[in-house]
Amino acid sequence: MRALVVEDDAIVAADLVAALQAAGFVADLAADGETAWFKGEVENYDLAILDLGLPRLDGLSVLRRWRAAGRDMPVLVLSARGDWTDKVEGIESGADDYLAKPFKMAELIARARGLVRRAAGHASPLLRIGRLTLDTRRLSATLDGATLRLSPLEFRCLDYLAHQPGRAVPAGEIAEHLYGIGEDGDVNAIEALIARLRRKLGAELIETQRGYGYRLAGNAA
Ligand code: CA
């Protein structure tokens, strides 16, 4: 999962990025509103964490522009003020959730995961897809109840596919959501990753839609 952190306070931003990475996200950072708006327009994020008080363009304007342009990723708004008019305005501008500063990082991560999950139609943090169960809190997976030994990257790949019900996902798209900017992840790396996962899970659990992409078996919309 790829997250965009929009936060101009460098210390808070570094904490957010570290916590999201520990929770299995790839996190990009934007420290001002214009950069945030641009990144949110050109990249495909699974989640954005958006501070409201930002240099160059305020957070609510960023959010309204994203929504006006049809960008529909879940957005968790952060505000230093925490008063309810901020909250109402945030939600009316298209925010999916709201957290007042100061916040507990564990709560932010729980809410962030909840937003990503619900955007894919999963109510529970345990994702059950056929014989496979992914625990999105522990970043672990079982097959027919037996724990799988997966690298963090392998887990992230299964997790991303599990959040795309009913569709085959192109290798390039998987790479975008698994690797940070500047990391060496391309289509070939994804093909190798899928091959490793098939050896661990059984080849039939990851279907190939020829010429298009990959889908978890039984991951219906
Ligand atoms: Ca700020």
Number of strands: 11
CATH fold-level topology of the largest domain:
Rossmann fold
Radius of gyration: 18 Å
- Roughly what fraction of the amino acids lie in strands? 15-25%
N-to-C SSE string, H for helix and E for strand: EHEHEHEHEHEEEEHHHEE
Number of helices: 8
Given the C-alpha coordinates, what overall shape results? elongated
CATH class of the largest domain: Alpha Beta
Biggest beta sheet summary: 5 strands, parallel
Cofactors and ligands: calcium ion
CATH architecture of the largest domain: 3-Layer(aba) Sandwich
Poorly predicted ranges: none
- Total separate domains: 2
Mean pLDDT: 93
What is the strand arrangement across the widest sheet? 2-1-3-4-5
Brief characterization of the structure:
The protein is of the alpha/beta class and 221 residues long. The chain has helices at residues 10-22, 33-42, 59-68, 84-92, 105-119, 152-162, 171-178, 187-201, and strands spanning 2-6, 26-30, 47-51, 75-79, 97-100, 126-129, 132-135, 140-143, 146-147, 206-209, 213-216.
